[in-house]
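not sure who needs this but someone in the group chat was asking about Ubiquitin thioesterase OTU from Striga hermonthica so here u go. i didnt clean anything up, its just raw.
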Amino acid sequence: MTTRFFAWIGQPADMGSPAKEKVERYSVRKVTGDGRCLFRALVKGMALNKGMVLGPREERDSADELRMAVKEVICDSEKERLQYQEALVAITVDEPLRSYCQRIGRPDFWGGEAELLVDEILTMSL
């Protein structure tokens, strides 16, 4: 049986399907480890998917914008927060929401599972 983790392992069962003929390319890119590295990696990947390369300042600023977008939906809007129940569970298992909201505003905040869950929804339209 073929298993899919990050890419096809072995031959797919049905090569006739256009969806299965999609070419997937992966690469490893260096990301500055400054506390905002998760957000840097996400914006760098989104830019590369659009054929763009971000300069260091643009990468940093875009990473901070993405982090602040997560903060806005989780911390600043109770109505929007309800759309991110999985992220809220991941956050509140470790700390109170109020404490999290204070920390995520800092540029050295380390992103993790909760931020990936929110970013997945935020970036779907990009």
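also Confidence is low (pLDDT under 50) at residues 1-12. if thats useful
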